[in-house]
Amino acid sequence: MKEKIAVIGGGSWGTALAVVLNNNGYNVYLRDISEKRVKEINEEHVNSYLSGIELPKELIATTSLEEAVKGAKAVVVVVPSHIVRTVSKELKGLLDKDTVIVTASKGIEEESHLRMSEVIKEELDDKFSDKIVALSGPSHAEEVILNHPTTVVVANKNKELAQQVQNMFMSDSFRVYTNPDIIGVELGGAVKNIIAIAAGISDGLDFGDNALAALITRGITEIKRLGVAMGAESVTFSGLTGLGDLIVTCASEHSRNRRLGFKIGSGKSLEEALSEMEMVAEGVRTAKAVYNLSHKLDIEMPIVDQMYKILFENKDPKLVVSDLMLRGAKYEIESIAMEKEW
Ligand SMILES: NC(=O)C1=CN([C@@H]2O[C@H](COP(=O)(O)OP(=O)(O)OC[C@H]3O[C@@H](n4cnc5c(N)ncnc54)[C@H](O)[C@@H]3O)[C@@H](O)[C@H]2O)C=CC1
Ligand SMILES: O=C(CO)COP(=O)(O)O
């Protein structure tokens, strides 16, 4: 008999992950709060967020959380990050004691500044504390659903648990690596969304490729600085969930965050840009969380600072450029200068 897996959140990413799991031979239940989405998946076998691509007929969508998770070997949480706490509260008491929880949402909670695995851990019973695995990496749903080659990382301190989840998702078009550094993996996936909005703004202003390369490279420097201060391994940020995900989100036509930035760079206000978005652009809320967190920890994040000012203080994006370019002169890589007493 097929083992059951529940995916909570039937947006573009939840649906793509559900299809990966279905193709790997699991009995997949996809839970979404929207009756319209559940109906289109069950009756028309499509998700309108994924341009009408035909979904496997065996995929079962439901609005009932209980029906989705009952008896499931694993529960994959993939709702927008600001909803992860609500879903986790609802999951409490519904899970079998051996259930593994996978978080595939990318964000930092606005008030608490917690990562998604930490939010879930706070809400579930203690017996699940060590059973939460993060899944992240450069992986737009629009390409995963077409079986285009994609690589991701699953992270947990417990190697066997990470390998269990690796085996669950691994296929000939979806390659899964493991990493014990869950802090780095989750932070890379969350913070890159802010830099992707900046990349979209830059493109909206028609600044070209030099500016994009600068944003990606200086962006990863900021992400790494914050990550290391929070206990992550520096080298994780050179991997798939750091630089890899930053590149794809800053450059891809599929990126929701880049798209939102492009609208702002083309002269729209945040409210106008958001009203035109169907799907979630996580970088907006994450910008607020990371701006406050970096100031609390005294971590220098100039691009994040300027993004906060554009998004929440109505600063004109054109003025941001000179503020970034004319900051005090710096070393490129401070650690080299220090090491060489330069
Ligand atoms: N779209 C993508 O290619 C990728 C997205 N992600 C991350 O995955 C998360 C979800 O993103 P998307 O799927 O793009 O979002 P989306 O905006 O496409 O869909 C979100 C879905 O969540 C549903 N929902 C809202 N509240 C719910 C609840 N309480 N229970 C169940 N479902 C609920 C909505 O009805 C909607 O269908 C985000 O954190 C995003 O950063 C990560 C990698 C790739
Ligand atoms: O995280 C993602 C790709 O890895 C998705 O990014 P967007 O939400 O910007 O589309």
TrEMBL record:
Residues binding NAD(+), per UniProt: 9-14, 141, 256
InterPro entries noted in UniProt: 6-PGluconate_DH-like_C_sf, 6PGD_dom2, G3P_DH_NAD-dep, G3P_DH_NAD-dep_C, G3P_DH_NAD-dep_N, NAD(P)-bd_dom_sf
Active site positions, chain numbering: 192 (proton acceptor)
Keyword Oxidoreductase: yes
Binding residue positions for substrate: 106, 256-257
GO biological process, one term: phospholipid biosynthetic process
Subcellular localization, as worded in the UniProt entry: Cytoplasm
The Glycerol-3-phosphate dehydrogenase NAD-dependent C-terminal domain, residue ranges: 181-321
Positions of NADPH binding: 12-13, 49, 106, 141, 256, 280, 282
SUPFAM superfamilies: 6-phosphogluconate dehydrogenase C-terminal domain-like (SSF48179), NAD(P)-binding Rossmann-fold domains (SSF51735)
Family membership noted in the UniProt record: Belongs to the NAD-dependent glycerol-3-phosphate dehydrogenase family.
Main function: Catalyzes the reduction of the glycolytic intermediate dihydroxyacetone phosphate (DHAP) to sn-glycerol 3-phosphate (G3P), the key precursor for phospholipid synthesis.
Protein name: Glycerol-3-phosphate dehydrogenase [NAD(P)+]
Organism per entry: Orenia marismortui
